[in-house]
Specification:
single chain, mainly alpha, elongated
Length: about 150
């Protein structure tokens, strides 16, 4: 729940910032000189890119949460079996061992979104966020493909 609140607060702050920047871009355009109009258009592009990125990220998080809920309903969420340091951080060797199992599981069933979801969690636990995101994107795509075929 705390992560959702943090995400929502961050998103709200970003939207406020994008609105503020966008209003400055409009003011620059309204000034009417070639230079200020050029800067105004450039300033307006930044909030558009930021809003697009925020929207895509929000969609990704929503889809990943839907997959987690579906996997939880099936009883297939990965169990947290990781050892932790006294400070609470995941032990690297423990994460690597779980990762090896998840990778082998995914190699055995590359078309199953569930194995990709669990691999994404293992990548995240191993602190490899870019690969965790790619694995989750693969899980989402496979899930969507399986539901399209079933329909």
């Amino acid at each position: 729940m705390r992560a959702k609140i943090t995400y929502l607060v961050t998103a709200a702050v970003l939207v406020f910032y994008f609105a503020l920047v966008g209003s400055r871009g409009v003011l620059l355009i309204q000034t009417g000189t070639l230079l200020t109009v050029t800067f105004g258009v450039a300033v307006l592009i930044l909030p558009v890119i930021g809003l697009w990125f925020l929207w895509k990220n929000t969609q990704f998080v929503r889809r990943a949460n839907q997959l987690a809920a579906e996997l939880d309903a099936e009883g297939g969420l990965p169990v947290d079996e990781l050892k932790r340091t006294p400070s609470g951080r995941v032990d690297r060797e423990s994460a690597d061992a779980v990762f090896a199992r998840r990778k082998a599981e995914t190699e055995d069933s590359p078309g199953d979104w569930r194995t990709w979801f669990r691999l994404a969690v293992a990548y995240h636990d191993a602190r490899d966020t870019p690969r965790a995101r790619k694995a989750m994107q693969r899980a989402i795509a496979l899930h969507d493909d399986q539901h399209v075929e079933a329909a």
